[in-house]
């Protein structure tokens, strides 16, 4: 069955086949290929970055790979747990991304927790590591958001009207929806540029990461409200709650450190 998305007001149409090509009987999805391309590009830019805050590249690469792998698994499990009725009858579907996708906020929470633990294990300054990782993580998120288009999942509530309205045709059915994957991709690309520029000159440790966390969580809060399949628990939107907690944490951290910097402009960045 032909599957495609159309932006009628922008005169754009895309066919969105799930499988890019097959090797033997094994299909390689566009979703995996695009996300992998983002990871490779991000790793290359991380390698070329001069703002490494005196952290060994070998340690950073090992931490990035471990964080991504665990975060990916965590994001998938979050998605399945909050939609357990779909996977109880056939648990093997948990391993098949064509049945659902990833829960980004769950993956972020787990990824942050893993990275904090790794910083302690590698005896590295947590805030420096997070500031280094942030732009490249945002870039990977941008690629992963575009990849979600081919999963035919990351679309918003129906009956959307406006310039960016999208018609999604799946299995002969047509839905007019919000292109959430596009919203998030643009947001993450913008955050990549902003945080990469911030790496050139930061005022205090943690500034880059918490600026990203504040801006991303604010944008994601509104995206969560437009989702067709949000994480719900007893009628409560868990995704929005996670975003709210991260917003408050970021505001407190940035507020305290900005005040400290204003009161002592010559304060050393690591004090």
Which key phrases capture this entry?
two-stranded antiparallel sheet, 11% strand, alpha+beta, 271 residues
Rg from alpha-carbon coordinates: 20 Å
Structural class: alpha+beta
Oligomeric state as shown: single chain
Low-confidence stretches: none
Total helices: the number is 8
- The neighbouring-strand order within the major sheet is 2-1-5-6
Number of domains: 1
Per the principal axes of the C-alpha atoms, what is the gross shape? globular
Summarize the main sheet. 4 strands, antiparallel
Termini separation comes to 60 Å
Order of helices and strands: EEEEHHHHHEEHHEEH
Question: What is the averaged pLDDT score?
Answer: 83
Q: Give the beta-strand count.
A: 8
User: Helix proportion of residues, in percent?
Assistant: 55-70%
| Percentage of residues in DSSP E strands | 5-15%
